[in-house]
Amino acid sequence: MIRLNNINKSFGKNQVLFDINLQIAQGEKVVIIGPSGSGKSTVLRCMNLLEDIDNGEILFKGEKVTHKQSVKQLRQQVGMVFQRFNLFPHFTALQNVMEGPVWVKKQSKKDSEKRAKEILTSVGLGEKFDFYPNKLSGGQQQRVAIARSLAMQPELMLFDEPTSALDPELVGEVLTVMKDLAKKGMSMVVVTHEMGFAREVADRVIFMDQGRIIEDGKPEQVLQNPHNERTKTFLNRIIA
Ligand code: ADP
Ligand code: MG
């Protein structure tokens, strides 16, 4: 689905990614863990071309992606969900979900509305079409954000700490939606500290530290029997 070959990335003089090699197969679910500042978000943002890379290459479905010509095309195929939901406050849930298909994909309002209602229903928001974001809980807003991404019919979904900004009692409903999506066969890359989700859903877990991929393996191996000391230290810290 997507392959990153030897990606390096700096912000000014500060190099934040070093020789990142990563591939995600179709239908694969990959969880990325690691300390704050280790480069997890930057990797996702590079995959979605929200950041320019210094060197290396990105292949999407076997084709080399070069920044300028590919942004629009790639963004339609790669959905991204952030920690903060970034909904349009003056649009209802339904309008938020319809916006991309109508304005970016130029689909008819009628079809977009029908599809948006189906997707909102599938994330458990069948009763909330006409609610504005400020009338929805954080968990509901995040589910609208996921629905909005899905409305563009992406082939790969990137999640950057999608539950980190939520009150603990709202985390479960968002994880449930993500697990459903995983079961339907979506290719997913998820940055999260939810180890239960990683154990249950991930085909692979990647541990990043200081801009490098330190470990990449099956969840049992990385989470229970990590090879690297830094992985052990990190896991001890978050489980403690
Ligand atoms: P993580 O998501 O693992 O917490 P990030 O990818 O956000 O890490 O950040 C990795 C490093 O890149 C950090 O040192 C961060 O300060 C730096 N960084 C991220 N975004 C920018 C930016 N837009 N400008 C400058 N430095 C940035
Ligand atoms: Mg981050």
Please characterize this protein's 3D structure:
The chain has 240 residues and is of the alpha/beta class. It is built from nine helices and ten strands. The strands form two sheets. Strands 6-7-8-3-9-10 form a six-stranded mixed β-sheet, with helices on both faces. A four-stranded antiparallel β-sheet has the order 2-1-4-5. α3 (93-104) runs parallel beside α5, α4 (109-122) crosses α5 and α5 packs parallel to α6. The radius of gyration is 18 Å and the shape is globular. 42% of the residues are buried. Bound molecules: adenosine-5'-diphosphate and magnesium ion (MG). Residues 11, 16, 34, 36-42 line the site of adenosine-5'-diphosphate.
Continuous helix count: 9
Number of strands: 10
- Termini separation: 36 Å
Structural class: alpha/beta
Which stretches are poorly predicted, pLDDT < 50 over at least 5 residues? none
Average residue-wise pLDDT: 94
Give the topology string: H per helix, E per strand: EEEHEEHEHHHEHEHEEHH
The proportion of residues forming helix, as a percent range, comes to 40-55%
Name the strands of the widest sheet in spatial order: 6-7-8-3-9-10
The major β-sheet equals:
6 strands, mixed
